[in-house]
## 1
Amino acid sequence: MTFDSLGLSASFLAKLSSSGLQSATAIQQKSIPAILEGKDVMAVAPTGSGKTIGYALPLLQRLEGTKSKNRFISALILVPTRELAMQVNEVVVTYSKALPSPLIAMAVYGGVSINPQMKKMNGVDVLVATPGRLIELLDSNALQLAEVSTLVLDEADKMLSMGFKEEVDNILSRLPIKRQTLLFSATLDKEVKTMQEKLLENPVTIIIERETPEELDLIKQEAFRVTQEKKGLLLRHLITSRDLRQVLIFCSSTYQVEHVNDKLNINGITSKAIHSKKSQGARKQNLADFKNGAETGVRCLVTTDLLARGIDIAFLPTVINYELPRSPLDFTHRIGRTGRAENPGTAITLVTADEAHHWRVIQKKIGKKVWTEDLPEWNS
């Protein structure tokens, strides 16, 4: 289905077309008309399904022509991580510029000084925020929520699993009772259901099933049995022998991220690292260098599950699981960074003997058997 039949304005249709987006995804087809009608929405959709455009465009269209009072925002988008805040804000800013009278959007998050964010709050219409930093700004009287007409909770399940329930409840208590509420989540667990019942009034419920076999086929999965001692050597061999570019590598700890990143650079493979112990400025710059690898020469980005949902690169070709994640759901989020928007991708998993049982569990849960090869031979 094309975007033309969803009720979006001509300016948005032109912008979507110029961006190369012709067909709406399933979540966009169902969420855009409902949001434009002013209804509450409960949407469950897997990572990479296009939900940001699914709520951002109708939200902006409904706000078109309005102007927020000083420090009284009109729309609030709550997200769990800084990376996702920047990603969502980028989408909102891009499409806001397509409006005849563009709205002002801004992202606020921790890890950086709060003072510049406070000073830029004047005239903001749409605020994308992480819970902790938003409360700091509210407690400093840097903004008011009394005139918020639309609330979006994006990645609600992750927000709750990260321990933000108390902060979210604090924020909800300061919002107007009469508003449009949009709840987006990758899963519908008990806590998300409780939030839905508490916040939404006669919602339109949208359930987009996790990847179909056809969509999973876009992700070519490979796995190799390897000893812990030879993991690094195998990783470097795969990258160099296949001349891989834009490789996203997942590790289970910040220590391992730094170790793998250092080894790659020492061996002539330009790499950057992102994890929770790096400053926000460093994380932002390293991600930008990775995205612009053709200019910067950065071939790899090594990270923890911090970025399993927070990174958005349209044509990311390769994901490598240097270590297995804790859960099958995290595995799905990881490999879901590639094979998106009908573009093929490759997900490679390195498995030690100690990880063999967990690897079988993951395959069973995702419903896909991945042929696991023995360590290949190569000249070192």
## 2
Amino acid sequence: MKKGTGIFATVQSALAAAFGVQSNKNRERDFSQGEPAHFIIAGVIGTVAFICILGLIVKLVLSQIE
């Protein structure tokens, strides 16, 4: 039975991969123990959060210009 990576390790791996700084050791751990669906969900949530934050920053900046 696979041990799994846990939610913290999944989020950490997804963030590291998004920034391009994932270590080889963690990448190998993710591929051997992690569930692909967990990483996909973490990536989608992270992408949506990133887009929302960018949208809020743009709104804030544009409201300061007017």
## 3
Amino acid sequence: MQKLGKQTIKFDNPITITETCSIVGPKEGEGPLSKYFDKYVEDEFWEEKTWEKAESKFIKETVNSCITKSGIPSNTIDYCFAGDLLNQCISSSFGLRELAIPFYGIFGACSTFVEGMQLASVFIDGDAADHALCAASSHFCSAEKQFRFPLELGNQRPPSAQWTVTGSGAALLSKNGQGPFITTITTGKIIDMGIKDANSMGAAMAPAALDTLVTHFKDTGRNPSYYDAILTGDLGHIGKEILMELAETKGYNIKNNYNDCGVLIFNKNEQDVHSGGSGCGCCATVFAGYVFNMLKQKKYKKILLIATGALTNSTTSQQGESIPGIAHAVSIEV
């Protein structure tokens, strides 16, 4: 590997994304990307007694399906990097406790999926692994319960609020293969602009996305036109507009090839999601479903995926703290 600048690594031997899988909930299954998901369930409980147990089932079934689709025996997979939004990452640890693969529970808020891809890539490039799993999940009901208000209260959500994606995405990375390939990773810094509104996550995360975007271009010497698509994780409609405006102030016009996973996964005009999708499962399911499909068909040949995360919880919000943001990027090429 080569270190480019302070935050980017270029792989001399690019890492193969061997296979992916995505399973989503009913609202996501009714959205514009429905045909790209491996499966969608009509019951948010998925026959479980609690939303938390349902979320664990999402990540369990997604990871197992990803392994099955890959044809790679599970006992040859060296590590699993997975995380979610719930306290102590219980969805991942409980959902994957029977996996019998060395496990790293990770947390980067909604940037967790790409954080896992970065860590797995470094392990593989450093000859510590031949195969590694990356996975993330979220659930609208469990997230509302933990971060905002119990659904039973029926609180009105402001237009800036986003809808946490119910679902899980997984990717299996390998040392060898036919691609698509992870060619570079750019690890983000914590960026805090003092925003405190927990119902405006897109605005809180957009500055972190900008910092990683600009850093990636400076470190690699690339510009927006290098990529067929630049995708952020879950800025939503409001955060997407903010990022485009901020990028222009830095001299980068990304309007022609930029979109956001939280914008893509729902139909704003037909589904009541306000500013779009969010959550660990947002970037994970959109990539594992729609984006990976586009790469395999070579409709996208070069993409920059920047997963965004709001590093907050209910305690910090109650104590009047601001919302720090983080954004991690991977460039993927066919």
